[in-house]
């Protein structure tokens, strides 16, 4: 079979033969059709195909044309095309290539061999696995040498062609997965994927073995299975070994590679102490530790070229490096150096703290500016989904923070009494938020009717669990917009300050914010009121807060 070279970049679109699958039709780019272009992006590795020997992007050693031909052969020879969907056994049997028109590589499938059940949609539900308990282990053979890396194959055992392997550990795992799926409202697809993963991992499991995370990470990745779900089940069974290095550990090691041992070792221990905590030291969030390390790293790289140890850094070195920065960067660096040298002084790593008693002038906080009406209108137009509309309403009306919106639960909503609890503070529900909440709850009930997630906002990924939605999922809804959720929250609080004559006490009562934050909003509102924007006056009245009744004035009389 001759090899057809892939078209060069820059080839114009037109009606021609695809350079990869040889299909005839409208090409997308680089002389490839849309399907082959997507196939190459998902499988960038190229090489000779196992069957046709063409040098093409490969998936498991086969090009896309051979995958299409294997699909055709499977559909033609398999007895039940709806249930037997494994194509890998058909790939080595490909002996020829059937050309096709683009966007139509498959013929009309034959009618199903199974009689369709009238009035019932989908396949019949499978019987639940039998109840099982933890296998009894009277004695365990301890390993003499470390176990080698285990090789798992996803298609080694096909449950469509045979029964479940008879293994007590597998039976127990399937029973636990069934109970977890019922409690969390798993769909049949999620339950089936979890079952196939457990069969692959535990079909030949014996007492005393453990499943290492490093052995299954690459196998599960990209298979539509959940690594976290499998790890949770195996951890409940007590046979899970989390041997993968933490992301923070790998990141910190790569950051400290350019430092000498006299600097790298103390900084390494300091960063881990900040994250994990210690005697009289509260643990910090990994994000805070990352900010401190990134802020101090340029100064440490400069000092490691002139000094051998952290104790050799002087006060002049700190002042010199602080002089090269301004604003928030200088303040963050000073905070990081105070934390580093303060810890080193307490631990006896250095004799004198070079960052103590260094004072810098704090930068003047910038004034909050109101959003333009067209930016708000654009965000409202983009927020087309029920979830996006709810996010915008909670941020623009109730000034809810990003984390507070993610943490909202169903118990925090009281539609009958028109009340919502945000960050532990009850708030009245206005008509707009009440209507949007009702729409979202209706959509949530219809989209995920069996979910057991207690959070108000869920996604396709979080509906099968109990945790909140991820931060990237929220940011994706309004990506690229000027009026983001944070800007909408700031604009709402600034509008309240403008409508109430820049009263910080009113802001504290309405939004339950810190005193310093309320003073900053009041200062911004006061500056805007002295230089009012005539084109964009504040449009909404202030929120009423119940004030204590003032006592009557004392009657004046002679004593």
From TrEMBL:
GO terms for biological process: DNA integration; DNA recombination. Residues 112-136, 528-559 are annotated as: Disordered. One of its GO terms (molecular function) is DNA binding. InterPro entries: DNA_brk_join_enz, Integrase-like_cat_sf. Residues 115-124 have a biased composition (Basic residues). SUPFAM superfamilies: DNA breaking-rejoining enzymes. This is Integrase. The lineage of its organism: Bacteria, Bacillati, Actinomycetota, Actinomycetes, Streptosporangiales.
């Amino acid at each position: 079979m001759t090899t057809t070279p892939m078209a060069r970049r820059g080839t114009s679109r037109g009606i021609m033969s695809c350079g990869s699958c040889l299909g005839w039709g409208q090409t997308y780019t680089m002389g490839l059709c849309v399907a082959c272009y997507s196939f190459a992006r998902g499988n960038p590795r190229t090489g000779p195909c196992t069957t046709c020997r063409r040098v093409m992007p490969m998936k498991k050693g086969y090009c896309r044309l051979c995958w299409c031909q294997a699909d055709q052969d499977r559909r033609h020879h398999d007895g039940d095309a709806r249930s037997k969907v494994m194509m890998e056994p058909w790939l080595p049997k490909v002996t020829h290539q059937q050309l096709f028109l683009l966007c139509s590589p498959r013929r009309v499938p034959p009618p199903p061999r199974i009689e369709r059940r009238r009035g019932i949609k989908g396949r019949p539900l499978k019987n639940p696995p039998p109840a099982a308990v933890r296998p009894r282990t009277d004695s365990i053979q301890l390993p003499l040498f470390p176990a080698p890396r285990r090789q798992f194959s996803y298609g080694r055992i096909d449950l469509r062609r045979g029964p479940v392997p008879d293994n007590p550990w597998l039976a127990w795992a399937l029973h636990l997965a069934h109970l977890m799926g019922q409690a969390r409202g798993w769909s049949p697809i999620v339950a089936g994927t979890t079952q196939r993963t457990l069969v692959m991992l535990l079909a030949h499991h014996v007492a005393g073995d453990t499943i290492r995370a490093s052995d299954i990470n690459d196998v599960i990745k990209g298979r539509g299975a959940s690594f976290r779900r499998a790890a949770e089940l195996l951890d409940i069974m007590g046979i899970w070994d989390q041997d993968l290095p933490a992301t923070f550990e790998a990141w910190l090691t790569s950051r400290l590679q350019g430092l000498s041992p006299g600097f790298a070792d103390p900084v390494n221990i300091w960063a881990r102490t900040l994250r994990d905590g210690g005697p009289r030291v509260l643990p910090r969030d990994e994000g805070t530790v990352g900010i401190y390390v990134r802020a101090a790293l340029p100064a440490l790289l400069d000092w490691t070229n002139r000094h051998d140890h952290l104790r050799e850094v002087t006060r002049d070195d700190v002042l010199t490096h602080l002089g090269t920065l301004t604003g928030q960067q200088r303040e963050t660096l000073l905070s990081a150096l105070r934390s580093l040298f303060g810890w080193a002084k307490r631990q006896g790593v250095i004799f004198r703290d070079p960052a103590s008693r260094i004072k810098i002038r704090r930068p003047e906080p910038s004034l909050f500016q109101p959003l333009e009406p067209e930016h708000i209108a654009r965000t409202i137009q983009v927020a087309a989904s029920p979830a996006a509309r709810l996010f915008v309403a909670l941020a623009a009306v109730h000034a809810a923070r990003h984390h507070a919106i993610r943490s909202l639960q169903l118990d925090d909503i009281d539609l009958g009494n028109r009340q919502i609890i945000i960050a532990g503070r009850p708030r009245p529900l206005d008509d707009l938020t009440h209507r949007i909440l009702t729409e979202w709850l209706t959509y949530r009930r219809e989209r995920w009717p069996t979910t057991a997630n207690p959070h108000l906002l869920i996604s396709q990924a979080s509906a099968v669990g109990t945790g909140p939605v991820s931060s990237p999922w929220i940011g994706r809804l309004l990506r690229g917009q000027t009026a983001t959720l944070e800007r909408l929250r700031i604009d709402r609080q600034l509008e309240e300050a403008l409508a109430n004559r820049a009263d910080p006490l009113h802001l504290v009562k309405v939004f339950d914010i810190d005193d310093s934050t309320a003073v900053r909003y009041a200062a911004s509102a006061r500056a805007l009121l002295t230089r009012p924007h005539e084109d964009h006056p504040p449009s909404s009245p202030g929120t009423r807060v119940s004030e204590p009744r003032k006592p009557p004035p004392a009657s004046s009389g002679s004593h």
